[in-house]
């Protein structure tokens, strides 16, 4: 693996892991009042577009971590809509 992909995987891992505390909190408390539907909606759409971009340019780190982040952000968005 080249250094650019290693940096991409590290960056993706760090930014994706940053979602975990919020997800754990929401799952434990079901309190989504502090989450913004518009922010998570736009963010989820943006992450999806990054995923498409990664697919187009054949970038494994972009594909992998944006797919994972898309699932996490979509889950938070769904929780916000369901439990609000």
From TrEMBL:
It comes from the Bacteria. This is Membrane protein. The chain crosses the membrane at residues 6-27, 39-56, 62-79. It comes from Leptospirillum ferriphilum YSK. GO terms for molecular function: sugar transmembrane transporter activity. Pfam families: PQ-loop (PF04193). It is found in: Membrane. It is a multi-pass membrane protein. One of its GO terms (cellular component) is membrane. Keywords: Membrane, Transmembrane, Transmembrane helix. Its main location: membrane. Gene3D superfamilies: 1.20.1280.290.
């Amino acid at each position: 693996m080249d250094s650019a992909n290693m940096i991409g995987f590290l960056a993706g891992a760090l930014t994706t892991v940053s979602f975990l505390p919020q997800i754990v909190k929401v799952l434990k408390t079901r309190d989504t009042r502090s989450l913004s539907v518009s922010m998570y909606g736009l963010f989820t759409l943006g992450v999806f577009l990054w995923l498409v971009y990664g697919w187009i340019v054949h970038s494994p780190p972009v594909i992998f971590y944006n797919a994972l982040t898309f699932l996490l952000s979509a889950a938070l968005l769904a929780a916000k809509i369901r439990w609000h």
